[in-house]
Amino acid sequence: MSANEYYWIDPVYSDRFYGDGNESYSHREHSRCPITREHLEGSRRVGRLNLHMQHNDRSQWIIWSVAGMVIHQDILEEFEKERFTGYRTEPATVQFKDGVISQEYQEFIVTGWAGIARPESGVKVRQDCPACHWKSYTGIKNTEQLVAWSQWTGEDFFMVWPLPLYIFVTERVADWFKAKKSRRYIVRGPEDRGHLAKTTGFTVGLLSNFMPVDLAVKYGRPLGLE
Fold it and tell me: Omega before 130 cis (within 30°)?
């Protein structure tokens, strides 16, 4: 793949597609810095992702929240048929407005990896803590140079550090999402990279706050990010 072939999936902030995950978000395990109270090394949700919807439409197949995202099992079966890679799933609960609780959704966790953004992109450490993993990075100036393909694991869904909340995907995944013609998300590509360049910077802690611990150790330990 080349630098011109990365895409990402953005959420649509609507009550139709966005669930209330505040209850799950509040149940977090915090990693505190040993020398300051001004920041946290990070926090990781403990327990199952539980979302509450403000409607009763069971047809939603992708639901976003501040605590994580879930995808309907029918769509996950399509992912398997397409042999998409770079993700894991965990059990999740979605409760609709009428009180009905659905078990047909799974939390979707990106596990593909493309390392740290290239310095040529303008993303550099602006400030870091000598006692923990907390870091502040500058924003993106050159979106063409963002992804270090030499660090990419070759998977369809992948993370670029320090943008752990962005769901980066390959062109074939982007084409699949586009073909669905759904209003539940926005597929961003080369023509939308100005959205990335508008960011003023990123503040992050441990990689394991965003990725399964075993993979955070595998990818993050050599880079001091685990």
Answer: no
